[in-house]
Design goal:
The chain is mostly helical and 145 residues long. It contains 5 helices and no strands. Helix 3 packs antiparallel against helix 4.
Length: 145
């Protein structure tokens, strides 16, 4: 046990001595370089994330779907039974679907807010151009309030 601690102390001492002797802070990457990497790829990744969030915004879960049957003979009877079951279970399923849609809306807003923060951080770090609030973003904010 003593050997291990002495080895660890020896190694950390050597590392500290090397760092102090080198004193070359220019080779240490900055926070922005570590987080964002290449500025061109950062801008492309942020644009890709924005497109994905916009595509998610258009999705919504619907309670109603077309009822069909693949049975050759009993198709009308099967469709009728499925419609009756759907109408009987609607009071249970519709609130769940609405709750899922509301959750989905809140997640999209959180992702959008996070992406705006990333835009601001990358613009502040000089990695990308500052994003102006476009007309569709202002319309969304007006709709949300």
């Amino acid at each position: 046990m003593n050997e291990i601690t002495s080895d660890v102390n020896k190694i950390t001492g050597e590392l500290k001595a090397e760092i102090t002797a080198k004193d070359d802070l220019e080779t240490i990457p900055s926070f922005e370089q570590v987080i964002f990497g290449d500025p061109a790829s950062t801008a492309a990744e942020l644009a890709s994330l924005r497109r994905e969030i916009n595509s998610l915004r258009e999705r919504e879960i619907h309670f109603f779907r077309e009822i069909d049957s693949h049975h050759k003979v009993l198709t009308p009877a099967i469709i009728f039974i499925k419609r009756v079951i759907r109408k009987l279970g609607r009071f249970m399923i519709e609130p769940i679907v609405n709750e899922i849609n509301n959750y989905h809306i809140h997640v999209i807003r959180a992702l959008d807010h996070t992406l705006n923060l990333l835009d601001q951080i990358s613009a502040h770090a000089g990695m990308t151009e500052p994003k102006a609030q476009g007309p569709e973003r202002q319309e969304e904010k007006e709709r949300d309030t």
